[in-house]
């Protein structure tokens, strides 16, 4: 990733779960981190797709996975995937004991049927 417009490595993540899902006691499949402001949102396969909604509402162009062991980035304007990029402020991922999907206690039994294709 050579261009880093929309990436502020000094900004920490907004928390350990999707900001909007947490506010309404919702759930998510995977988490994504806005590289400009640190907003944590749920992925496009999650029912609410908050990471993409955040990018569209704010114009913040780049996200990074907030899953353990994943360091990839996605640029919305370029619709391009990057296997790596600049090191961001810690933490790099949600807590290891946080289940996927998550969070614990809020994932419906039929969660697979509720995912976006």
Walk me through what this model shows.
The protein is α+β, with helices and mostly antiparallel strands and 117 residues long. It is 12% helix and 15% strand. It contains 2 helices and 5 strands. The chain has helices spanning 19-23, 50-58; strands at residues 31-34, 40-42, 62-65, 73-75, 80-82. Strands 2-1-3-4-5 form a 5-stranded antiparallel β-sheet. Strand 1 and strand 2 (40-42) form a beta hairpin. It is globular and about 40 Å long. It starts with 18 loop residues before the first helix and ends in a 35-residue tail after the last strand. The model has no long low-confidence stretch (mean pLDDT 95).
Summarize the structure in short.
With 117 residues, the protein is an alpha+beta fold. It is built from 2 helices and 5 strands.
How do the strands and helices of this protein lay out in sequence?
Elements: H1 19-23, E1 31-34, E2 40-42, H2 50-58, E3 62-65, E4 73-75, E5 80-82
Antiparallel strand pairs: 1-2, 1-3, 3-4, 4-5
Radius of gyration: 13 Å
Distance between the amino and carboxyl termini? 28 Å
**How many strands, which pairing sense, and closed or not: the largest β-sheet?**
5 strands, antiparallel
Strand order of the largest sheet: 2-1-3-4-5
The tally of beta strands, per DSSP, is 5
Amount of helix:
10-25%
Low-confidence stretches: none
The averaged pLDDT comes out at: 95
Offer a few descriptive terms.
alpha+beta; single chain; 5-stranded antiparallel β-sheet; 15% strand; 2 helices; 117 residues
